[in-house]
Amino acid sequence: MLPAPESPLLFRFGSFELDGESGELRKQGVRLKLQPQPAQILKQLLLNAGKVVTRDEIRAGVWGAETFVDFEHGLNNAIKKIREVLNDSSDEPRYIETLPKVGYRFLAEVESVYPRETHKPSPVAVMPQPQFEEVRKESKTRGRNLRWAAVAAAGVAAIGFAIWLPASRDKIGEPVRFSLALPENLKFADVGFSGSPVAFSPDGSEIVVVAREGKTVRLYRRKLRDPQFESVAGSESARAPVYSADGKSLVFADINERQLKRLPVGGGIAEKLHGVNLTFFGIHQSTDGRLWFGDCGSGLMCRRADGSTDRLTNVTSDGNELGAVDREHSFPEVLPGGTKLIYSAWTSNEASALQGLDLASRIRKPLIRPGVAARYLPRTKHLVYAWQGNLYSVPFDADGLNVKGEPSKVMEGVAQETQWGASFYAVSANGHLAYIQGAPQHPVGPRAWVNWKGEIDRSSPLPHFLNNPRISPDGRQISYFEAAGPEGGVAIWVYDIASGVRRRLTGRHGNAYWSAWMPDNRELVISADFDRSGSFSLYRIRADGGGEPQRLTSGAKLEIAGSVSPDGKWLLFASQKKSGAKIELRLLDLRTPGAGSTRFGNSDQEEFMPDFSPDGRWVATVTNALSKEKNVVIRPFANPGRAWKVSEGGGWEPIWSRDGKRLYFRSPSGGRLLCVEIDLSSDIPGIGPQRKLFEGPFFPSPFAGRVWDLHPDGKRLLLATFAEKQPRGRAVEIVLNWDGTLPGRQ
Predict the structure, then answer these.
(1) Same domain, 684 and 732
(2) Alpha carbon of 519 to those of 19, 549, 553, 638: distances in Å?
(3) How crowded is residue 313: how many other Cβ atoms within 10 Å of its Cβ?
(4) How many domains does the chain have?
(5) CB 235 within 8 A of CB 219
(6) Same domain, 158 and 296
(7) Half-sphere exposure of 257 (CA within 13 A, CB side)
């Protein structure tokens, strides 16, 4: 009989892990179903990996030496179950080799982790970490070099959490690095602009991540010492999670319902806390229970425990230090003491900034440009922030909001969404770092000309950022919005297709987003907030940039330029009276400025994305007035109370063909271009069956404005592609006591 070696805590082989005490088998952290008797046999084979274990030795070790009845059948059945769960084959074994009439041998390499009281873990080779600026740094307080240690996630339990749990401000432990891999059925979800997909608990003992399984996105929680992630029930559609100050609940943004929600860390029924018009830009909870968040298109907000809210900044009216306005204020964090706050002032992809805010005086203070997504490390008094896939640190006086010295790059290869700055990292108050490896990623790729087969014309490249493009009626120019300049503000631009020259039509001191061409190609109607009132009104401007904008409307919270009638007399636009209200269609007579607009149609449901037919007799829109989901409908312009549904299963962004015989539209995901033949020869339209023209990787419309267009020549379409996916890790990288490695430690 083989000697019985001391049982390890864990056996690790390939992507599997067997718990030596409980007999639980896991793959990539996911528990697999294996009955106790097969688990005992597998443990015996793992204990003697590479050696032949005879059938008699297995019988004695599992069944008992005196057991003979039905042993042969039981052993054969147990080995079969082990092979099934390991996806192994008896003909071409990777794990278990059969020696006929003799026994079995475990073939794969096995790593055993023993109890720390009797065994020391085998040394783990230090893995190269190119993302660190320096692997060794001199510690002024300890007078010796710090060493990076690379350990496996399961090995953390063997080394013991005494390394970091009792860490104090005066004594910072050695940095320890390991990875927490996602199970194979999960992948990190794209976070868009909402915030980081990973967060630390207040004591740094556990993390929560945003991950996707199939089409479902939810939160997954894991204590650092535990072997696997656990899903958090009730967290579907969650983004930007944060822990409460006591670590008992999670707060997150539900992007589907546009709600701030809270639920227990173990899952449950989510409590609705606060709704926003569009989306959230980062969430922070201070120790007094107040919630701080960025409200898209508005500014920084604070939600008190009684449910009341307070606006801290206003992106539509507060000028920045460069004389313009910021596009968004995001990723807030209240500093120790509760009287100061840091946040990101997003101006453009090139030059966003970090700002400080005195909560009593509301005085803002510029800190660093460029930079985004800053966090404060209280033990070493560092400010850490992200920019273009890198992390930087700088010594920081939190009381005076003063940067002390020059920033240092301290980490490379951190995944980041560069459109609005969300960076895939988190730090805990006791100095630990969690991050996801990857490269900078912009969600929207280049704009491109596409033919009717869905093929991209690579020979005629277009500028990357043609946001909400509109092609002029003569097909020579494209209007769009983009940052007015590095200092901030959003402007309407016009791009000349033939020459490639672009010109800015609006100034830097306000924001303008949507546009619609007049039929004469000389003027446009745009949506803008020039007076920084927080409301977007409609203006008429010249396409050559001359003259002053002529104001057409006022009074609503949001007005989106839609479609001008072919005779230039009428404008249809989407209107929202106040934040959170339904979006409705309104009609404006362009011949009589100041006369006011009227409601178009009689539906109580939302309606937007209008497009006049070429003869001006019909209007295509998007609404859920005739179905549960939003679909394309057509209405007669003279009698808009009547409507006929055109699309099936959801339709978005309709555009008429130039002869008025077809209506093109996209699926809500943006990937499919669809078409319906329409006969408008009588008062009752003849609507043909829906046809798919092509399907491809094209970006959807995120809101009520259209993001694609049809060239007047009828031969090409202007679409936004998805950005090429950048590589991203499948594990959360953890560095305990990371703050002790930062330069300039105070």
Answers:
(1) no
(2) 73, 18, 20, 20
(3) 23
(4) 3
(5) yes
(6) yes
(7) 16
Q: Which of 265, 235, 232, 263 is nearest to 248 (CA)?
A: 265
**Confidence band of 138 (pLDDT split at 50, 70, 90):** very low
**What rounded mean pLDDT belongs to the chain?**
85
* Cβ neighbours of residue 14 closer than 8 Å, sequence gap 6 or more: 94, 95, 108
Q: Is residue 598 part of a domain?
A: yes
97 and 154: one domain?
no
Q: How far is the C-alpha of 497 from the C-alpha of 60, rounded, in Å?
A: 83
Rg (CA), the chain: 31
By three-state DSSP, how is residue 618 classified? Answer: strand
Per-residue pLDDT, 114: 61
- What 8-state DSSP symbol labels residue 486? T
Structure tokens at 358: 């005195």
* 267 lies in some domain: yes
In sequence order, the β-bridge partners of residue 272 are 261
Residues 438 and 448 in one domain: no
Q: In whole angstroms, give the CA distance from residue 13 to residue 298.
A: 52
CATH number at residue 170: 2.120.10.30
Grouping H, G, I as helix, E, B as strand and the rest as coil, residue 134 is coil
Spatial distance between the Cα atoms of 698 and 443, rounded to a whole number of angstroms: 11
Q: Are residues 98 and 152 in the same domain?
A: no
Residue of 44, 42, 56 whose CA lies nearest to 7: 44
Residue 189 has pLDDT above 70, yes or no: yes
% of the chain residues with pLDDT over 70:
88
Terminal alpha carbon distance of the chain: 62
CA-CA distance, 520 to 502, in Å (whole number)? 20
Residue 737, judged by CB atoms within 10 A of its CB (0-12, 13-18, 19+), counts as buried
Instruction: Specify the CATH number for the domain of residue 44.
Output: 1.10.10.10
Confirm whether 701 is domain-assigned.
yes
**Residue that is last in its domain, among 79, 113, 147:** 113
Owning domain of residue 563: 444-722
Q: How many CB atoms lie within 10 A of CB 368?
A: 21
Residues 108 and 147 in one domain: no
Chain-centroid distance, C-alpha 655: 30
The kind and range of the H/E element at 551 are strand 550-551
Q: Is residue 718, in this structure, part of any structural domain at all?
A: yes
Backbone dihedral angles phi then psi of residue 684, each to the nearest 5 degrees: -105, 110
Quick one: pLDDT at residue 135?
29
